[in-house]
Amino acid sequence: MSNDLVLENEILNLIKSAFNAEGNVIKSRRVEVFVKKDQVSSVLLFAKEQRGYIHLSHSTCIDWIEEGEFELIYSILSPKDKIMLYVKTRIDRDNPVMENLDGIWHQLNTYEREMREMYGIEFPGLIGDKEFCLEDWDEIPPMRRDFDTVEFARKTFYQRPGREDAKDVRKTLTEQSGEKIPDFATKYSRE
Amino acid sequence: MNIVKDKKSQHIVDYIKEFARKNSLFVMAYGTGCGAIEIPPTMTSRYDAERFGIRGAATPRQADVLLITGYLAVKTLKRVIRVYEQMQDPKYIIAFGSCTINGGMYFDSYNTINALDRYVPVDVYINGCMPRPEAVIEGFVALQEKIQRGDADNGKKYQENIDWYRENQMKVIKNWNMPDYNW
Questions:
Q1: Does B172 touch chain A if contact means CB atoms closer than 8 Å?
Q2: I need a surface site. Which of A59, A70, A185, B86 has the fewest CB within 10 A?
Q3: What is the ipTM of this complex?
Q4: Mean pLDDT of the A139-151 span
Q5: Are A11 and A80 within 8 A, CB to CB?
Q6: Chain A to chain B, count of Cβ pairs less than 8 Å apart?
Q7: Is residue B95 within 8 Å of residue B118, measured between CB atoms?
Q8: What domains are there in chain B, each with its CATH number?
């Protein structure tokens, strides 16, 4: 097993030159590329058909609320090279529409339905029930960061008294490690 | 229900009735959360719950005990209510773990209820995350003592206070499309 990242750099440079994309080798066997929204299908098809990245491992979404964007990640794996390639793209948070790619891997259908429900991303032409895990949900999608889950639970579910003296463990942990809690995270602090 | 007119004889009849009830607890085979993983060791040879007369039942109409094993999503709560209402009186609920008591580690989740006894009556709470099989058996023994005392009549209480329970249930279950069971 070589440690000079030959295969990693090869696939990275191929995608960089062919699609004019950014990217880097994270570590051994892990490569990430940042592509534009309309290039995702071509990059995925190129990697699948030409380079042997035949396995869709995972697909998920990250909410970058400060930048007003959603980041969609497609993790695909080449069983031959044993490399995981992360294809990342950013879409607008106010108008979250993404191309429906379940024609490439049918498994994407499940992930896209989950993203539609949990983040409210629209996939035009996506087949499947509107309800995936939730039932009769009429708030904003719950995995978005502007959804205040503590406030929602307080308002919806009965809170049994007795938890008032619960301490925020993050404070103790950050004091030990010297790490700073970001401002958006302190919003959920119990103190 | 009084079978005999004499008060002393009724006491003996009650004793035999409760004795039979407490020693044949049929548990509904329905796992709702992560706690269901504690049921197989409780039932199998290491802890052998059947020596207390505890065994599984396939359908709600054959079961006496409904175990709520862990956190309850709102979606699952709807099914639990439906199962509970189908069960025949006398029926008991044992609630498992911290999540059923005050929400546990899911106290701020958008989709799990925090206090089970607002929605269905609970006979015995077992705390722990998760309770070990010894604790589960302890809970069952507590239920058996309650039955022998004649205190375990939550099925009746549920019928009497059905309006209060319905109000709480409908607060979280928005689309109420359930059948009405007239017991």
A1: yes
A2: A185
A3: 0.80
A4: 88
A5: no
A6: 55
A7: no
A8: 26-172 (3.40.50.12280)
